[in-house]
Write a structure and sequence with these properties.
By secondary structure, the protein is of the alpha/beta class. The chain has one domain: Response regulator (Rossmann fold). It is built from five helices and four strands, in the order αβαβαβαβα. A four-stranded parallel beta sheet has the order 2-1-3-4, sandwiched between helices. Helix 4 links the parallel strand 3 and strand 4.
């Protein structure tokens, strides 16, 4: 497994349940860090609406997600990715189905869904920041 982690893919697809929070955040983070070296996309099992709190916490670190339009797996133009990173159990199951049709490397990074966090607006923002920061650390560890 360590050998695999050292291999830098040419294309990465981040997937989650709705392509509204986790996968677009991860894609934006990797794109900001390695966008000239790695082709990056995101998708969901279903397409939801882009979450405004995700946009807000990404803007805090200087990354815009304004151009992101949530989409599902079936809407992808290019289905050939070297690596698919699943951020939710539903997305992992869907990614496993994709890997039966082509040689795709699948990684599962279990990532909390901050949309279920209740509390004050600041408590909710803190949950989104925690997801952002966790993804940032995982991306740095995986892609250098």
């Amino acid at each position: 497994m360590m050998e695999t982690r050292k291999t830098k893919p040419a294309s990465v697809l981040f997937v989650c349940t709705l392509n509204a929070v986790r996968s677009p955040m991860a894609a934006a983070l990797l794109r900001a860090q390695k966008g000239r070296e790695i082709y990056v996309e995101s998708a969901g099992v279903e397409a939801g609406a882009l979450d405004p709190l995700a946009v807000e916490v990404m803007a805090e670190i200087g990354i815009s997600m304004a151009a992101h339009h949530p989409r599902c797996f079936e809407e992808l133009q290019d289905g050939s990715f070297d690596l698919v990173v699943a951020l939710s159990p539903e997305a992992e199951a869907h990614a496993q189905e994709l890997s039966r049709k082509s040689a795709i490397q699948i990684e599962h990074w279990p990532t909390m869904d901050p949309t279920g966090v209740e509390g004050t607006p600041e408590q909710r923002r803190a949950a989104y920041r925690a997801v952002r920061d966790t993804l940032r650390r995982q991306i740095a560890a995986r892609f250098g």
